[in-house]
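S.,

As promised, the manganese (II) ion run. Input:
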Amino acid sequence: MPHKLPALPYDYSALEPHIDTRTMGVHHDKHHAAYVSNLNKALEGYPDLQEQSAIQLLQGLDSVPEEIRGAVRNNGGGHVAHSMFWSCMKPKGGGEPKGSLAKAVDESFGSFAGFKDTFTKAAAALFGSGWTWLCLNAKGELVVTTTPGHDHPMFQGLAPLLVLDVWEHAYYLKFENRRPDYITEWWNVVDWDFVSANMTAVQVGAGLQHVADWATGTWGKLEDGWAKLVGG
Ligand code: MN
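Predicted complex:
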């Protein structure tokens, strides 16, 4: 079954005034859609690989034939990262995390303000196109990391809980070159419930695959995209 573009879990205009309608439309319907279609194109003629989820493809990148490895890394990575990114946002989001996530943030960064500052600085300083992530490491600590292109933090042995797209296509229509302004606005739409649930899922399970399993069960609206991500 070919990989499918997951539907957005809210309307294109739902994140206004922070993230604008036009950007959401182009970002989801053109950019994310192109990664999905280019991933499918790359896998033409590789029936065994077509059976794998996008996450499985990234996990087994070394065994993907060299002639399509770059295309799978970029387009499969783009598909996985964007699918998670949409779910990290919601209308009337923002505020601060609660419960065990809030405690973990305090332990790892001193305070929520400390975390926000670390994450914002990493996102603003990332050179060129890439992503900024809040992750759990193998010791169960929260860490902020960045990845170039569409690379996934699993390549650094990290399980992602929250992700921000800092490619120019994510903000240029509204914010032009002002990436810091985009990041400031983005904090207002973060879905901390999603981030908390990801942390719980990783802590009780086996990491990344468990996050995907959890997402499959929870995000009915994304069922096609997530089902494909986890190979269901
Ligand atoms: Mn993007």
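Residues 27, 31, 82, 165, 167, 169-170 surround manganese (II) ion (CB under 6 Å). Confidence is low (pLDDT under 50) at residues 213-232.

- D.
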